[in-house]
Structures are given as structure tokens and as C-alpha cells.
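Table S5 (text form). Sequence records supplied for joint modeling of the two-component complex.
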Amino acid sequence: MFQSVRFQHFKRFDDLEIPLSPITLIGGKNNVGKSSVLEGLFLFADRSNPNLFVRQLTWRGLSAIPLEPQAFWGPFFRNYQLDTPLSIVVKEEGIPSVLEISYSEQLEGTAVDITFPSPGQSANSPVVEQVMFPYAVRIQYSSGEGLVQTATQRFTTSGVQHRVERFDRPARGAAYIGSKMRVDAAEEAERFGKLDVEGRQDFIAQGLRAIDPRVASVSTIVLGDRPVLHADVGIGRKIPVMLLGDGTSRLLSILLALESTPGGIVLVDEIEKGFHYSVVEEVWRAIGAAVARSGCQLVATTHSIECLHAATVALDQQAGAPLLSYTRLEERRDRSLHAVQASVESLLGAVELNWEMR
Amino acid sequence: MTTPPPARRPEHSPVQLTRPGVILCEGRDDELFLQQLVRRLGLGETLQVIKTNGKDNLRRDLALLRAAPQWSEVRGLLITRDADEDHRAASQSLLNTIAACGLKVSASLHVPSDVSSDSIWLGTYVFPGESRSGTLEDLCLEIAPNSSVLKCADRYMECLRSIVSGEGRRSSCPAQPRKARLLAYLSALPGVPNSIGRAAEQNAWDLEHPALRELRELLLELGSVCTYQLGEH
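The corresponding C-alpha cell record, covering 591 residues in total, follows.
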């Protein structure tokens, strides 16, 4: 399990460490960096993916990204300052693992394809000038045993080149569920298929009953050329789960991610979205059960006090060590950012006294 | 299949830290009484009274307070409780709880507490004050302005005791004599509710009474520390 994560020079954070639990809720006002915590953790887990930067920018809604360093890599560095490397340090069983990303401008290592006049063309045809971009970032990952992964990304005339020099597949899987995005139906069907193969598919229907007690079972049905998850709700025919409602669809995405990423980490932005307050406690029980079963960590942001209260009450009743912790990101008067953690005991006190903790 | 039980939902807006000075007290009566006194002293914009779940939960509630939003803006904290039967034991218990939370009471409110990482001034007050045993009820009976009604309430209590004694009962009657005496007093005042806090809102207590001098001075000192700190930002 990831015990803590420390961000240095990453996005909003100068140097910030956040303790992590099996389930960690992150709160705080707008623009303090809650989503950045999730993105940073995902970047750490996604470090061997050539699209590690692009996919995060598109999650934020950027549909066009200029091919220049400030626009492409700048958003990941504190205040867009590319001259200081960013690092994400995750501690696991006391051992730190470090992802460091540094920017440089140098031509060493660049490669350009030179186009000669093709056969039949006059030797006097003008030579196409080739541009050499000096911009590059180096992605290095090291764990307790030393450097285990290095890669370089640089701009070329045709786009971005990702060159792997040393590769090590991350041991822990990760899934990200944004506040605005809907998880691709085919991806969800694939996750469900994985559970089905292992005979664990019933956990999904069981979890969805937190919202809709009618859900008897979930199954994959191919519509056209796409697999779509359907639910049997006792009306004589199965219906696509997404038609049951946003809350059910969102819980389905969360449960599938948790159950199909054993030992990994699932990151959910604004986890309260789509859930009526009356079912939130039951939703948290279903999520708590999935986390306990799969050993997958959950880190989620929330603005909702109902969500925080419900998680505290629901997860306190589950046996074993505390599953939940809450960390609020707080900007002080001097503009410094702090991570303030509240224990489950404190959270229960907050529920009893109705004290504000967000 | 089971129908999910209804979730708990906060009925009122959550309590937030909104002032640079915080007074933690034991219950609703203490909260309303102290709020009235704070307002009378003109410190309503500086000090905020918040009730906890009682002295047995103080350690947890202190931890909660320190994890609450805006705690970093708090500059002074006063923690109150009743002395009950033993002022010294109650004071020591309060200090022990504070120490267990990594905090230390300031020798004077003008000396920052040096153990905690929180740079606040921390004080305590144990009702009825002046190192005596008792409760807020006792203090209120001292500052009850209508002495003839109080004498009447005392005669009623004496009457009750003589009846119980005459019947040979060993148990005390009433079970909570302080509260009974106070309620007997309040019940004789027209238009005043039967609770210390609500009575405070109706100006049923003499907040200028000498018995409140120690508490008034403490609140004024806390207020001045917090006002001074506010001006620094």
C-alpha cells in the first residue's frame, strides 16, 4: 500500500506530503490542488506510458495542445517553471520510490530524417530545411534499489517522440475516474469480463444494490459491435446500466475499477457526484467492501460534507484497522499550502458535533 | 435484498471557526451563557463560543478543533469546564488532557504556549471560578439578581429536604440539588425559560456581578490578545 505521497515542484505544490490510507478522502477549497493530488498519483503509476502527459491534459478538457514546451509540459511544473525538476515520491513499506521529470534544451540525442530529392526530381530542386527541436523532458524512476526506468520525450517535426532507455513495468495498476468524464463502455465491459472470468462478477451487482435494490445481476451484451454492461432489474428484459441513472453508472465505474485493480490504486475526482444523500452511506459500505476485498487503494476528492459524514459512519462500522482518513488541503494567509489530516476518531466527533471539516 | 437505511444528514449548518479567539465549553447552557457574556463585553466579533461533547470527549474534540479549517487563524483558546466536587482534581484533569494533546496552558495569556506547534495562547477556566468546587449553576445562583426569589427557592429546597428526611429515605432529594435550586429560582421569574443558557439570553443574570470579575478579566485578556493578533495580519 502507498503510505504517503510527496509532491515537489509539481503543479500547485512547492513541497507537500500527504499521508495515505486504504481510503483517503481529500478536501479543501477550490484551486488548492485536490485534483492535482489525484493526477500526480496517476502520473506516478502511469510513468511508463508514452501518453502520460497528453492524457492528463485531455482529462482536464484541453482538446488542442500546442507543440511547445510551456503548453505541453509546463502545466505539470509548479507555476509552469520548467527549469526546476518536479518529483513525486511515494513511500511503500517505508521505502521511497521517486519519479523525477526534468526539462532541458539541448540538441544532443535529437534525430532528424533528411529528405533528398526523390528519383526523377532535379538535383537542383530546393532542399527542404529540417528543423531540430532542442526541447526535451527526461522521465526517471528510481526505487530503493536505484534507477529502474528512464525515458526521454522530445518534440520532432511530426509530433512527440518518446524514447525508452530503460523499462520496468509498474507493479501497481491504476485507474482514474474524473468528475466530468464517463468511463468508456468497452473499457468497463473489459474490466467486468476480467471479474467474470474469475467468478467475481456478483460483487458488482451486490454493490449496485446500494443504490438500486432491484439489480439482480449484471452481464455483458454486445450492441452492434460494442460490449455494453446491462442490468437485470426484474422488468422482463435487461437494460444498459447507464440508463439506470448517473449515480448507478458512477458507482459501477468505481466498483469495477476497484475490483479489477487488485493491489493497485483508484483515483476518483468528486466522488460524491451523482449520489443522493440518502444512499451515500450504503454506497460507502459497498466501496469499503470492494477496497477490503481487492486490496486496492482509493484516493478521492470531495466537496460534500454529507459524503464525508457518510464515509466516516459507514467505514467506522467495518471491522479491522481504520480504512479511512481525511486530508484537507489548506492555503494559509502567506499563500503556503498545507495538508491537514483528520483521524477517523476526529471525523466521528465532527459528525456528532456537526463541525465543519471541509 | 435489503432496503438501505436512511443516511444521517446534518440538520443545521456545520459549526465553523470564524473568530480569532475560541472558547470551548461543555454544553448548550454554557455556550449560551458565555455567548451572552462575550457580547456584553463587546467581544462578539473577536471571540467565538463552541460547545464540545463534554469533558470526557475533550481530548478528541481538541484534536478535531486543531484539524478544523481556519484553525491556523485562531490565536487564542480558552477551555472551560465545571469543577464539580473537587476543583483541584477538575483543573488537573483539564491540564492533563491539554498536555496529552501536545498543548500547554500559557502561564499568562500573554505568553505563547511553548510545547505546541500551534502558536496560540491557551487558557483554562473552571466554574464556578476562584478555585472553588461547584458548577456553572452555582455561579449563576450567585449572580442571580432577585435575592428574595432566591431565598424563596432556598426555603423550597429546605422543605424538600425535611420531607425526605422525615420519611427516612437515605437517598438525596432532589437528585441534583444544584440544578433543582436553580430551576426553582428560574421558575419564579416571569417570561424566563428554565435553562441557564436561555435565561442568559433573557438577561436573567447579573453579568456585572463581582463573582464574574475573574471570568470577565480572562475574557477581556483573551480578547485583547486576539485583537492584537488580528491587527498584525
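Note: Residues 14 and 334 of chain A are 13 Å apart (CA to CA).
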